[in-house]
Amino acid sequence: xxxxxxxxxNRVKGLSFHPKRPWILASxxxxxxxxxDYRMGTLIxxxxxxxxxxxxxxxxxxxxxxVSGGDDYKIxxxxxxxxRCLFTLLGHLDYIRTVQFHHESPWIVSASDxxxxxxxxxxxxxCISVLTGHNHYVMCASFHLKxxxxxxxxxxxxxxVWDIGALKKKNVAPADDLMRLTQMNTDLFGGGDAxxxxxxxGHDRGVNWASFHPTLxxxxxxxxxxxxxxxxxxxTKAWEVDTLRGHVNNxxxxxxxxxxxxxxxxxxxxxxxxxxxxxxxxxxxxxxEQDRFWILAVHPEMNVLAAGHDSGMIVxxxxxERPAFAVQGSTLYYIKERYLRTYDFSSQKDNPLISIxxxxxxxxxxxPRSLSYNAAENAVLLCSDIDGGSYELYAIPKDTSxxxxxxxxxxxxxxxxxxxxxxxxxxxxxxxxxxxxxxDMKNDVTKKCNLPVSTSDIFYAxxxxxxxxxxxxxxxxxxxxxxxxxxxxxxxVKYVIWSSNMxxxxxxxxxxxxxxxxxxxxxxxxxxxxxxxxxxxxxxxVFIYTTLNHIKYCLPNGDSGIVRTLDVPIYMTRVSKETLFxxxxxxxxxVIQIDPTEYLFKLALFQRRFDQVLQMIQNMxxxxxxxxxxxxxxxxxxxxxxxxxxxxxxxxLAIECGNTAVAVASAKEIDDKDCxxxxxxxxxxxxxxxxxxxxxxKTKNFERLSFLYLITGNTEKLSKMLKIAEMxxxxxxxxxxxxxxxxxxxxxxxxxxxxxxPLAYATATAHGLxxxxxxxxxxLDGALPSIPPSxxxxxxxxxxxxxxxxxxxxxxxxKGFFEGAFGEPSAVDLEEEEATEGAWGEExxxxxxxxxxxxxxxxxxxEREDDDEEGWEMEDLELPAELAVADVVPTGSTYFAVPPxxxxxxxxxxxxxxxxxxxxxxxxxxxxxxxxxxxLGIKNFEPxxxxxxxxxxxxxxxxxxxxxxxxxxxxxxxxxxxTASPNTRGLPALIYKLSSLEETxxxxxxxxxxxxxxxxxxxxxxxxxxIPVVVVDSRREVDEVKELLGIAKDYVLALRIELKRKDPSLxxxxxxxxxxxxxxxxxxxxxxxxxxxxxxxxxxxFKLKNYGTAATFARRLLELNLSPQVATRARQVxxxxxxxxxxxxQLNYDARNPFVVCGSTFTPIxxxxxxxxxxxxxxxxxxxxxxxxxxxxxxAVVGSNGSGLLCSSTxxx
Length: 1213
What we know:
Elements: E1 2-8, E2 12-17, E3 23-28, E4 33-37, E5 42-47, E6 54-59, E7 65-70, E8 74-79, E9 84-90, E10 96-101, E11 107-112, E12 116-121, E13 126-132, E14 138-143, E15 149-154, E16 158-163, H1 165-172, H2 177-189, E17 195-201, E18 207-212, E19 218-223, E20 227-233, E21 238-245, E22 251-256, E23 262-267, E24 271-276, E25 281-287, E26 293-298, E27 305-309, E28 312-317, E29 325-328, E30 331-336, E31 339-344, E32 349-355, E33 370-374, E34 379-384, E35 390-395, E36 410-414, E37 418-422, E38 425-430, E39 435-440, E40 445-450, E41 457-460, E42 465-469, E43 473-478, E44 483-489, E45 493-498, E46 504-509, E47 512-517, E48 522-527, E49 532-537, E50 543-547, E51 550-554, E52 560-565, E53 571-576, E54 579-583, E55 589-593, H3 597-606, H4 610-619, H5 625-633, H6 637-643, H7 647-657, H8 660-670, H9 673-686, H10 689-698, H11 702-711, H12 715-727, H13 731-741, H14 744-753, H15 757-766, H16 770-780, H17 827-837, E56 846-850, E57 856-861, H18 905-912, H19 916-921, H20 925-936, H21 945-954, E58 956-959, E59 968-971, ...
């Protein structure tokens, strides 16, 4: 049995496979129906409207429906897409045992303990027939797949076959009045449309199950007499064929396999048995220790079965479906139906070579597991699981006729695995002695080699070399030199696939692919969520692999993606350009066409073969958000722009990578105010004033436009902005522009027109405009503002900028490979275009003057004549042509391309690490908190705030630059050296180390010895708060960190107990003080501190006249190394206690019953009592504290889940 999926739940009473999807329904004794994806191993949904156990459940063949029947006498029809019950069918008077949809008609058949079988029409939601005749509980009923028959089994010891042909005709033909009368009689008395065809009697006790064969006229039944019976039927009669004996308890369920000539049965004897239908003998038995089996389900199309038992269900296969194969050149050698066959990839011809039948083989799982081919000797090695592991060596005759009729003799032997390692040598793994036996073609041992690791399998690794697989690593072993050439830590490897040149190897585990070179130097790892099935190397060096439902690729740099989806799993044998060769689960060769464009494009990009990249872009259809995101991630935004057709996406991408030329083109198409604003911000960041000016003009942002002219010193255009503001009746705009220009007379005029005469007078007087001041004085009629006299008075004029009328000086870079290659409006293209087109083309509030040739010339601001319209309309305002926007791109042979920003070091830390300390050092506090929550159940992060900040600040520094520029941030790397590669980013330098924590521990010990308990408690809590972010390098240090965590936890608990005992609130409670002192002695302390705690508890109990308890402490004290004075006192107390072993006070303390102390209530939790623990510090608590914050570490929630402390990369595979 190959278990594919297993669940833990209440007893499973009903099972049903979905005919197409990898789903299974399980109905439970608790009343819940579960819908599982057995391929992914996830619970999709649950349905719980039944009251009481649900015994029957079944999927519809084509509709998104399933039906269930339970002990509440109800049949419910559900829609799993809508996730609800559609309707309920009522009619049965007792428990419903099974329900099933008809494969064609809209019918449901149900069997019940009310001794009837009912057939329902689920479309009209009515009962259309009641089958009566059984005189005990009807345990099951099911339709025949092809004929109009129903089979039922009952505890009346019979199996009945019912003919429902009349019911079929009745529901097809229109019913007349007579038929309606018949229907009425049927409803009252039962029968009529369905008649009993056969009654099968032969079981001695009640029959629990009966089912039809899908194609043959056979029935199989299982009963409480522990027998499985096989029945045959024809048109006139049915008879018993044989009885299968072997079960030792009631047979619960029995079925025919959908694709093989076998019968599967399960029983309350906790076993599943497989029977050969032709030989009628038992083939295999699978047992469980505790659980009785109740139900079976067979997938209608696949080799998958399911069985429900007392504590859940299992989905399993009876034998491996993966064919054994090997590829040699352009030929595939594989095993199919006991034949060794060849398949030529070029001609696609399939030929049988030899027969490998094994006479007398009856057990399952005897097909070869692996195949190794030797081209020099034209021989094959087949390995199987027979006899605990064996191999067969076949020499293929040269004169094979192509019919595969010859059966050459084979040389056999025992061994867990066997592979060829040289021209005439093969290696056999002896797992018992952990050695490899080198044998010649005569099957004689020539050499024995002890293996360097405990090896469970071996793989070919070139002439004379082997790959040895252990549980957590792969070792490259030289058989000739008997030496280890390489080693790689991996998950459990199942398959090894070498590239054609033997330079690279792919190691396939259940959920991962590890790529390495021929010396086992790790290249990359790809993790999958579902099973990896097979793989092959593409001619270009890309590894193509399959999962259960996808064909995928893996590039040498670790990038992976999907090539196409699969309907059924396949086993890949070869990839050649756009053709993929594979074997399916039936051993048939299939050819699948794939599109390699995506991975070849990424490979060319990775190998920096830009000519191929350009050719592929121009000749092939590459599209999709994934390609765009990939190009952005890899630093090729100019290539990504080629794939984007949507203008909004193009604009956002251009802004992100700083390509203002493309951004301008897209903004013109979109013509959205927000886009122009974002373009202005980006252009201002780059110092491109012309684009900023254009963006401000398009958004009519006159205030920003005026300020732009101010900082660039363009006073002429400021003067024009002043006139525009005047035409717009924008008083504040006029005043600001006059202020920017230093035009005092204009400011006085604006204030006067606005009615602000005192301000106008003050402005004129302060700036020496005597005539204007006198005129305003007359208007004010003596109400003059007081102006303080000042001798040193000067006009407020705006400063002149250093750089005027030109963009910032930018870096000159060489032309990129892709620049201008795609016909995009790049910087160079724009330069040529603008040489003839002028500044910025058509805009809102600016007119484009045309020259004599009709071509666009300079952009000018124009004024509108006075008319009735107000506001933003200014097209008629005529101004001189001097107000021209300069050409955007300066002429010349050089241009600026914005260098793409690199990936920040802190981001690399986050991407490559799973340790919370390194995430905190990178500043990714949110991911660090998520990691700690998942690993240690930490919810309260307030105590860790300062720790996170210190980690982050200590792993970064800054270098001073020029005076006017900010400092340059720099990440500090752990273990950096001058010889380190500049392209390799190390991990962050951390201030918290194991050595510093050990030093803190020594100080805390000393402080505890000195009796400074409050200070010692602070130090131990500090250790607890630091350990979550500590990072160490080796497994040994991981163990030390965990030991340190345990010590800190024990001391925090002990010190809290002692401080609680000394609390003034307990001054009048001597009993509680004595209890706490006693608990203090049971904490895991150093010998020095244990002596002090025992002395304290002994003295306190002696004073309370609890001589028996005091003697207990004295006895424990005398077992330690004591000073003479303390030893004498302890002996005296012991003598008193032995003479008078009584306690005056009753304490909640039993020294003879082992216990731990609750970290919250400070009470004992004796062995056998229910308790819960903190997922981080493992402190123990009484069950009532579930969900509260741990009072020891003050970080995690008591009783929550956590995967465990992760403080080293060696813990992460």
